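User: Hey, quick favor. My workstation is busy. Could you predict this chain's structure for me?
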Amino acid sequence: MSSVSVVTSRATIHEREVSVGSGWVALPVVLVLFAVGVTALVHAAATETAVSGVLGITLLTLFTVSLFGFFTLQPNEARVLVLFGDYKGTVREDGFHFGNPFYSNGRGIKAPHGKEAASTTVWNNSRNKISLRSRNLNGERLKVNDKQGNPIEIAAVVVWRVQDTAQAMFDVDDYEEYVRIQSESAVRHLGSQYAYDHGEVHEITLRSGVDEVSQALQAELQMRLAPAGVVVEEARLTHLAYAPEVAQAMLRRQQAEAVLAARQKIVQGAVSMVETALATLAERNVVELDAERKAAMVSNLMVVLCGDSEAKPVINTGTLYG
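Assistant: No problem, here it is.
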């Protein structure tokens, strides 16, 4: 018997912007329902008329149900309209609105986020509202191995916002938690793709290529967060350092490299100065130097120019040939 595996593709839902009625127009109508309903009940109690009582109860019931149709939206805020499990669209216009009272209110947004979220989950009634404002995600310090296998600490800040409310609501379970986890995964992957500060020639490193690394991080985050309808506006590293267990050794290596680079610079400068001195003496015919005297002069100048301590001249009263 052969087993057959069936792979079903997940349907992606994209946002459809819709409009609903004005709350200011619907409010007087709802208040009229309340007034007429109360009047009918009072009339039924006074006259003991069953028709007036049924009418009053019906109108008050409609009034109570209608109250759930009112909602407000602030600037850069949207509400996802879901009617009995069917996505009807998204309202993005701010103000006081009135819609179908049976639109789902959703399960809210869980808080707080972080390490304590699993044990202290609280759901509030958000009425399927989603903030469209830019948000900051200040990532925690992560310990990863760079391209050369050195343990480093790295952290990043991500500026993001929701662009497609339907994807954020329906394509992922919790888009805020999704952003947090995917951002951490992207930072870990980024740290393993670059060397910390000592790569090959012309190679971009985490320390030297700040702009290039930030662009690479933003591109990877955008790819990871696209299924949640999220746009990454900016991503930058906020912390970068060697892990404590190797920090001292790496500091000594950096100091040695700095000393070596300084020595090379000093030697190059000294050689240039000696060449200039010899060329000037020969050009102006100040003194004629044979090969042995030139060698002695070069030796003395190199010692003076490259020495760590201040040179102490010694007066020679004889000659090289005496």
